Amino acid sequence: MGLTLVRLMQDYPKLELVSAFDMPEARGFAYDIGMSAGVGPLGVVVEKLAEFSADIVIDFSSPAGTRTLLENISGKNIALVCGTTGLDRTAENVLRRHAEHAPVLWAPNFSIGMNVLGRLAAEAAAILGEDYDIEIIEAHHRRKKDAPSGSALMLGREAALARGLDFAQAQKHGRHGVSGERPREEIGFHAIRGGDTVGEHIVWLSGPGERLELTHRVQSRDTLAAGALKAAVWLAGREAGLYTMADMLGL
Predict the structure, then answer these.
(1) What pLDDT sits at residue 231?
(2) Could you tell me if 71 and 148 lie in one domain?
(3) What's the rounded Cα separation, in Å, for the pair 127 and 122?
(4) How far is the C-alpha of 235 from the C-alpha of 12, rounded, in Å?
(5) How many structural domains is the chain composed of?
(6) Are residues 54 and 126 part of one domain?
(7) What percentage of the chain has pLDDT greater than the value 70?
(8) 193 by DSSP, 3-state: which?
(9) Nearest CA to 111 among 251, 245, 215?
(10) Do 101 and 6 belong to one domain?
(11) Are 67 and 123 part of one and the same domain?
(12) What is the per-residue pLDDT across 59-99, written as a single tens digit (0 to 9) for each?
């Protein structure tokens, strides 16, 4: 994602790359990020995360990477676009505290279509009502570390809110053995991992004699990177606060 962001950033004249960082345990530093991204030398070398000066930072790393980043920018007026999923409660709280000092846009998925799917899933769940069971199926590449995906959880939260359900109580992750009859208020999640699948999400709403399926497939990481770059342009100059893609899209 980092290299994709650098490559696509060339199409966003309002953005200028000033620094590039990787985790301390990464192999190799001090290489020109532009050369690795295939856009030629940019004069920006990859370094270990340290003190830096910037207006906005885009973070697609890992829970550990995001925690380290937040330690470095805590209390500073540095805007943050964050696409890291799998954050624990402590890291989430640190991120929210940073939003008290600077604008933060945190999203599990920066695809425009995926965020529209969230709105559609909520509307369908509300309209169809409790006679239609909600199941969410997601598929990603074999290297993805968290399951279910942050995007799947986002879809589930949207549907639960529309139904007036407590999401913490409603979510059910996978089934095996004699699982018993399915409660109406349950929202099921099923994660598939394999190959180089970029990302697929299907929301099933199954009712008497019919099933509605809402599907979104990402065919290229460029889609996610482009959404994050658009988010960075939109976030620039905003007041401190925690924003979502729905805020950016006016959903």
Answers:
(1) 96
(2) no
(3) 9
(4) 14
(5) 2
(6) no
(7) 98
(8) strand
(9) 245
(10) yes
(11) no
(12) 988 888 899 899 889 888 999 999 988 888 888 999 999 99
Residues 67, 50 within the same domain: yes
Same domain, 212 and 228: no
To the nearest whole number, what is the mean pLDDT of the chain?
A: 93
The DSSP bridge pattern shows strands 46-48 and 20-22 to be parallel
Q: Looking at the structure, do residues 138 and 192 belong to the same domain, yes or no?
A: yes
Tell me: the pLDDT tens digits for 138-165?
Answer: 999 999 988 999 899 999 999 999 999 9
CATH code, domain with 23: 3.40.50.720
Q: What is the set of active-site residues? A: 140, 144
Instruction: Give the whole-angstrom CA distance, residue 159 versus residue 168.
Output: 12
Predicted pLDDT of residue 65: 87
Considering the entire predicted model, what is its pTM? 0.82
Q: Give kind and range of the element (H or E) at residue 125.
A: helix 112-128
Q: Please indicate, yes or no, whether residues 139 and 196 belong to a single structural domain of this protein.
A: yes
| Helix (H), strand (E) at residue 161 | helix 150-163
Tokens standing for 197?
């699948």
Closest by alpha carbon to 81, among 98, 159, 193, 192?
98
Domain that holds residue 84: 2-106+221-249
